[in-house]
């Protein structure tokens, strides 16, 4: 305690310095940026249906037509169509801006979902289901648009971008955790088409709210002559890894729905996303990151857990296996998506990330169709062989992805030297 100019000043005792306030965590710092909470809220609403549409379609179609194979084939067709259309939608976003492209593209996709709903409700011919679900292919990559905003806001800050990628992956997993639960509840408690109807409404509402946040929207990139990001070194091999990873998700969803066979399917399937969400948040707070092959090795090691649970004949054992297996997926996706951002030219970021999502959707389509076929011929328990095999394939394909610094990164180091 001292006096200064007649004022009493309290000072800490010798040897006991005053402690500053605790620094905010990485996620609090992210959301403290101007406009971040607003676009995150809108994007969260828009992404929640991503975990609803597949489960809703499988429950709705299998209930009306009595065939898991048909349900898996229809969802696979819609995902395959999205895989073809999404890169073009993303290219339009890069050239004309998120707000100008995302809203009309979402309106078309929502109408496709409503058309599917009506076709199933009136028990229309099977080919109409494929046509209606294919119309949802214009759905914009809302997760990619959100990541592009973070990349623009925190360019030049690798630590913040790592936290942002982990946060976005956790949001993805949260949506795939809550989406199936909500879809299963709506389809069983209200009517079979309720999940698809609510999902379409949430998708359109969320995209409109997200697009309205113009202050954080990345500027429109000038037209580039570099061609597709597919030409970036290492990109084709990386997309093959994404495809195999998508097959893990697609097969796991259809097989788990068939294994649980009831309203509990949503909560059981959500446990995989719960494990992934928790692991993603922890991974984002870590000061050190793991390599892509290390993450894929962990996924290949943990993905057989649901198969072991199914071998016991216990749904609880399968649920626990899904929870454990999910812990490897978020770190893998965060690391892989960070690699995509690193090798994609800045002016093509939406397109580059959408190519990654497209590869995942293609893998999900193959996994869904193969899962439905396997379930009908050999039963759900044997279906869990598929995600385990797909995880092992992803690890094997990662050998083709260059492990060292990317060419443009090495060139930058040479120029600075």
From TrEMBL:
The chain crosses the membrane at residues 41-61, 68-89, 101-120, 197-216, 237-258, 264-283, 315-340, 352-375, 381-403. The keyword Coiled coil does not apply. Pfam families: MFS_1. One of its GO terms (molecular function) is transmembrane transporter activity. Residues 1-25 are annotated as: Disordered. It comes from the Bacteria. Keywords: Membrane, Transmembrane, Transmembrane helix. This is Transporter. It comes from Streptomyces purpureus.
């Amino acid at each position: 305690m001292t006096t200064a100019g007649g004022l009493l000043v309290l000072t800490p005792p010798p040897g006991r310095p005053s402690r500053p306030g605790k620094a905010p965590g990485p996620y609090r710092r992210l959301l403290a940026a101007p406009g971040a909470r607003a676009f995150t809220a809108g994007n969260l609403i828009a992404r929640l249906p991503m975990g609803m549409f597949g489960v809703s379609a499988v429950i709705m179609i299998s209930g009306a037509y009595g065939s898991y194979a048909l349900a898996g084939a229809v969802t696979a067709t819609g995902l395959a169509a999205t895989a073809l259309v999404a890169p073009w939608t993303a290219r339009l976003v890069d050239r004309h801006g998120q707000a100008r492209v995302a809203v009309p593209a979402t309106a078309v996709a929502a109408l496709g979902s409503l058309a599917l709903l009506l076709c199933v409700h009136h028990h229309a011919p099977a080919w109409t289901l494929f046509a209606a679900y294919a119309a949802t292919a214009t759905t914009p990559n809302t997760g990619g648009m959100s990541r592009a905003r973070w990349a623009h806001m925190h360019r030049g800050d690798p630590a913040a971008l790592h936290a942002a990628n982990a946060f976005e992956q956790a949001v993805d997993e949260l949506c795939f955790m809550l989406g199936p639960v909500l879809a299963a509840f709506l389809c069983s408690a209200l009517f079979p088409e309720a999940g698809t109807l609510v999902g379409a409404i949430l998708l359109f509402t969320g995209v409109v709210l997200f697009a309205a946040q113009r202050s954080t929207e990345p500027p429109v990139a000038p037209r580039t002559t570099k061609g597709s990001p597919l030409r970036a070194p290492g990109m084709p091999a990386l997309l093959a890894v994404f495809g195999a990873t998508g097959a893990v998700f697609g097969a796991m969803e259809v097989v788990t729905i068939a294994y649980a066979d009831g309203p509990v399917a949503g909560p059981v399937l959500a446990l995989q996303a719960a494990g992934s969400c928790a692991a993603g948040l922890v991974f984002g707070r870590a000061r050190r990151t793991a390599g892509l092959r290390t993450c894929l090795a962990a996924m290949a090691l943990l993905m057989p857990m649901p198969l072991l649970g199914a071998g016991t004949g216990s749904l609880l054992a399968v649920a626990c296996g899904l929870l454990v297996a999910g812990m490897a997926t978020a770190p893998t996706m965060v690391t892989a998506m960070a690699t995509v951002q690193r090798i994609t030219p800045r002016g093509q970021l939406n397109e580059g990330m959408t190519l990654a999502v497209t590869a995942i959707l293609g893998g999900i389509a193959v996994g869904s169709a193969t899962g439905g076929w396997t379930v009908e011929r050999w039963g759900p328990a044997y279906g869990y062989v598929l995600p385990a095999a797909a995880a092992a394939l992803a690890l094997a394909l990662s050998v083709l992805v260059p492990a060292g610094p990317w060419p443009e990164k090495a060139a930058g180091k040479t120029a600075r030297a």
